[in-house]
Amino acid sequence: MDSENAAPAPQTMQVPPKKSGAWGVFREIVQFLVISFVLVFGLRTFVAQPFIVSGSSMDPTFANGQYLIVDEVTYRFREPQRGEVIIFRYPKDTSKFFIKRVVGLPGETVIIQKGKVSIRKGDETQILEEPYTQGLTVKDMSRNLGSEEFFVLGDNREASSDSRIWGPVDRKYVVGRAFFRLLPVTYADVLPGDYSNQLE
Question: What is the pTM of this model?
Answer without folding.
Answer: 0.75
